[in-house]
């Protein structure tokens, strides 16, 4: 079975306790793995200020999952996002080979650093 590369980010409401936040992240990790996804990377970006108020809230907890999965999982994942009242925004995108390579370089600390050149 061919697996596509995806990245999903969701924002949790800031009124959750740490335990509730962890339970919600675990729930979506389980949704992915139960439906045949292979998690590549996970990043808890923490509490951040929103660009504009959403549901009268100015901050939210950001969580990112990068994963490989068949295309059929996206509809199930979006349905779970919409059913969960703790999620205030979500976005899932398909990654091409360039985006996957960029994410690998970013994780290895190679993005944003200047290349060393030899002076002749």
Automatic annotation (TrEMBL):
GO biological process assignments: translation
Indicate what this protein is called per its UniProt record.
Small ribosomal subunit protein bS6
Species of origin reads Spirosoma arboris
The encoding gene is rpsF
* Pfam families, A to Z: Ribosomal_S6 (PF01250)
Any one Gene Ontology cellular component term annotated for this protein: ribosome
Per the record, the domain of life is: Bacteria
Q: What keyword terms does UniProt attach to this protein? A: Ribonucleoprotein, Ribosomal protein, RNA-binding, rRNA-binding
Regarding protein family, the annotation reads: Belongs to the bacterial ribosomal protein bS6 family.
Q: Which InterPro entries match?
A: Ribosomal_bS6, Ribosomal_bS6_sf, Ribosomal_S6_plastid/chlpt, Transl_elong_EF1B/ribsomal_bS6
Q: Name one GO molecular function term.
A: small ribosomal subunit rRNA binding
Q: What does this protein do?
A: Binds together with bS18 to 16S ribosomal RNA.
